[in-house]
Design goal:
The complex is a heterodimer.
Chain A (H helix, E strand, L loop, with lengths): L1 H5 L3 E4 L3 H13 L6 E4 L2 H8 L15 E4 L8 H9 L9 E5 L4 H9 L4 E4 L4 H18 L10
Parallel strand pairs in A: 1-2, 1-3, 3-4, 4-5
Helix pairs in contact in A: 2-6, 3-4
Chain B lengths: L1 H11 L1 H24 L6 H16 L1 H19 L13 H49 L5 E6 L4 E4 L1 H7 L3 H4 L4 H5 L7 H11 L1 E9 L5 E12 L5 E10 L1 H60 L5 H32 L4 E5 H11 L9 E5 L4 E5 H18 L6 E7 L6 E8 L31 H11 L4 E5 L5 E8 L9
Parallel strand pairs in B: 7-9
Antiparallel strand pairs in B: 1-2, 1-5, 3-4, 4-5, 6-8, 9-10, 10-12, 11-12
Helix pairs in contact in B: 2-3, 2-4, 3-4, 3-5, 4-5, 10-11, 11-14, 12-13, 13-14
The chains are: A alpha/beta, B alpha+beta.
Chain lengths: 152, 503
């Protein structure tokens, strides 16, 4: 499929397995789930990005988009975001905060750190699926990622 | 005092003074001539000298000189050979010269003595007047409630007024002559040497002094010192005016400790607020996630099994989804409610009529297909947070719309019950299902509902939000109603202060 070939790799940073499953289900529904890497906390996400730890041997290109939860064990989402945006070779990766928090201060902090989009996970499943689908389609398909990202 | 006054007066009239001169001279001449007639010679001179002395004494040097001149002339004319001429023989010249010289000397001495006495009298008068004035001043000083005392440079008290007696407990008799430091055991706010230095430099000093009264009580006084210097500009005495500020000090300390307490409380409150904020945040984040999972997986389940399970199972699944949705709404409302408590109010003056119009636009979709008779009266201007007040109106109006749903013809009235008080009172009245006044105190509680949710939907937070907003504006909310008899919701708020500053 044409779309399949152009699909970008998605890095999903999410600690809650249920959320991971729901998100993957939503992505699957639109055939967007074949190239999703899941990091379960901030540290793992950074390990992936820096190709260290268990991701030491990964291919060197960056993901087309990173879906980032804010409330994470070890290193929280805002800290991950801060590190990415202050690192020359990582700052071009589009980052979408995907969170339960509607709190204004989280939103403000994220935008100040240079987030590319901020999405509040809807409680309603239909809306949730829609949101994930639109995110996946936009960032992994429509958006032209910066040079150096994976695009199959 | 009357005697010297009379004498001075006598001496001040020129007619009387010169009259006295002429009269005393005439009497002396008369007596001299009389004595001569009876063969007594050499009596005239002493008589003239006597007259001169009397005149000088009582009438001063001018009339005295006149008497001397007259006496000299009369002496040569009547008593010195040749008699009845003013010619004086060489033999009698020394006699005459001595007489005149003696008379002049007498006049001079008498005049000097008289002047000295007059000065003495004057000085005495002045002194008496001063004493009288001082006495009056001292009794005036007793009228003041301030304590006033004077001490010399050796700390010996020389004056002590009634105020000082009232404040410290010692009478003037007790205090005068005592060492002020030993008596009052004063504690100074600065070293005494520094205070004295300032006093000598500027002539005054002010400060708080701690003292012990006669009955051993500690008092704090605000003391004002003034330095008195003598004629040689040497420091002579210190006058201290003071008033008791013990009570004021005590209150100040009380206020200070209350302020400290308040600061502590507000810090506590701040931390509680922070905790609440964290709590709201955690509700927002952590409560939503499991809810989303419940809804999400139930929906996935529904998709998978709806065609193979029976109708009852499908209904159960639908109910789970409905509950999850309802809980989501509750969380959202609760968060909005908690945000009102935390948000800053931004007060402006705005038209309530305009705001009602906006609120009506907002709830328009609830009125679709409904038959509602709106009656909107004249509304005043309102001073408060516009967006919060808008929320109040939207909540109350949509309640009115909701609870008149069962009426074929709904009537909703919005108006202002203008009392004479300082508060403006607005109301929203409907002819809906109303409520039992028995439960009126439950209306505004969080999660409190008076209707079953299959009758009228709702989270039970709307009226709690209304109340919280109105309370934050310094107003009140209350309601009147009857079962099936409609309801009226009132809210009050302080009127915009006067209409003076309105554009």
């Amino acid at each position: 499929m044409e779309t399949m070939n152009k699909l970008g790799r998605i890095l999903l940073v999410e600690d809650d397995p249920k959320d991971v499953e729901l998100t993957l289900t939503a992505l699957e529904e639109y055939n967007l789930a074949n190239e999703v890497i899941v990091a379960r906390d901030g540290e793992e996400a950074l390990d992936y990005l820096y190709s260290r730890g268990k991701f030491k041997t990964r291919s060197s290109d960056n993901p087309a988009v990173m879906l980032l939860d804010l409330k994470l064990p070890k290193v929280d989402g805002l800290e991950v975001l801060k590190q990415i945006k202050s690192e020359e070779k990582l700052r071009m990766i589009p980052v979408v905060v995907l969170t339960s928090s509607k709190e204004e201060k989280d939103m403000v902090a994220s935008y100040k750190l240079g987030v590319n989009a901020y999405v509040v996970k809807p409680v309603d499943f239909h809306e949730f699926v829609n949101a994930i689908k639109e995110l996946g389609v936009f960032w992994a398909v429509i958006n032209e990622p910066p040079p150096g990202s994976v695009r199959k | 005092m009357a005697r010297p006054k009379l004498r001075l007066q006598f001496a001040h009239s020129p007619v009387l003074r010169y009259g006295l001169a002429v009269a005393s001279f005439a009497i002396a001449l008369g007596l001299g001539l009389l004595a001569q007639r009876y063969g007594f010679h050499n009596v005239a001179d002493p008589l003239f000298l006597f007259a001169i002395a009397i005149t000088v004494w009582y009438a001063g040097i001018g009339p005295g000189t006149l008497t001397v001149a007259l006496s000299g002339l009369a002496d040569t004319y009547f008593f010195i050979e040749p008699i009845y001429s003013i010619y004086i023989t060489r033999d009698d010249l020394p006699h005459f010269v001595i007489f005149v010289l003696f008379a002049s000397l007498l006049t001079g001495f008498a005049a000097v003595r008289r002047r000295v006495e007059a000065e003495l009298l004057q000085a005495r008068d002045k002194l008496e007047i001063e004493v009288a004035e001082r006495t009056q001043q001292a009794s005036l000083l007793n009228l003041t409630h301030d304590s006033i005392f004077v001490r010399d440079m050796d700390f010996v008290i020389t004056f002590w007024n009634l105020g000082a007696q009232e404040l410290y407990g010692w009478t003037a008799e007790d205090a005068v002559g005592k060492h002020s430091q030993e008596l009052l055991q004063t504690a100074f706010p600065a070293p005494l040497e520094d205070i004295h230095r300032e006093l000598l430099r500027t002539g005054r000093w002010e400060g708080e002094l701690k003292r012990t009264t006669a009955d051993g009580m500690q008092v704090v006084v605000a003391g004002r010192w003034a330095l008195r210097r003598d004629e040689q500009e040497r420091p002579a005495a210190i006058l201290e005016t003071s008033n008791d500020i013990t009570e004021r000090k005590r209150r100040e300390q009380e206020i200070e400790s209350l302020n400290l307490e308040l600061a502590k409380r507000s810090t506590e409150l701040e931390s509680i607020n922070k905790e609440l904020e964290a709590f709201a945040y955690s509700i927002s984040h952590d409560l939503r996630a499991p809810l989303r999972h419940m809804a999400g997986f139930t929906e996935l389940l529904q998709k998978k099994v709806s065609s193979v399970v029976d109708e009852k199972s499908n209904r159960y699944i639908a109910m789970i989804l409905d509950s999850a949705k309802r809980m989501g709404n509750l969380i959202d409302d609760l968060l909005a409610f908690s945000r009102i408590g935390r948000a800053e109010t931004q007060k402006t003056l705005f038209s309530l009529t305009q705001l009602v119009r906006e609120a009506l636009t907002e709830v328009r979709q609830d009125t679709e297909g409904r038959n509602i008779a709106w009656k909107i009266g004249a509304l005043p201007d309102f001073y408060g947070d516009r967006s919060m007040l808008r929320l109040v109106l939207v909540n109350l109006i949509s309640n009115a719309i909701k609870f008149t749903r069962t009426r074929p013809q709904a009537e909703i009235e919005i108006g202002c019950a203008d009392g004479k008080s300082d508060d403006l009172v607005a109301f929203i009245r409907d002819n809906g299902v109303g409520f039992d006044m028995k439960y009126v105190n439950k209306l505004f509680g969080v999660f409190q509902r008076l209707h079953q949710s299959d009758e009228f939907e709702g989270t039970g937070i709307g009226l709690a939000t209304v109340q919280r907003i109105i309370h934050r504006h310094g107003g009140k909310v209350w309601a009147e109603g009857a079962v099936d008899g409609g309801a009226t919701f009132y809210f009050s708020a302080p009127k915009p202060r006067g209409h003076l500053w309105r554009p």
